[in-house]
Task: structure prediction
Amino acid sequence: MGGYDYQMIKQISNSVSVPIIACGGAGKIEDCKKAIETGASAAAAGSLFVYWGRNKAVLINYPDADEMKTLFS
Result:
């Protein structure tokens, strides 16, 4: 959850003509935006939205309206 490998995203997106999905590393919504700005067509972010706690409890999290605006602006 320390951010995607942006250099790898850029290298791959510059090397292929198919859409790519960044997967693995999202710790905050800004990471998704940066992955797309770097060249990904989409960004997977499972751990960002679902967290399994020490008691096997599930916390489902989602971006609020202001976070969504920063993602898509």
Summary: Residues 17 and 39 are 11 Å apart (CA to CA). The first strand starts at residue 21 and ends at 22.
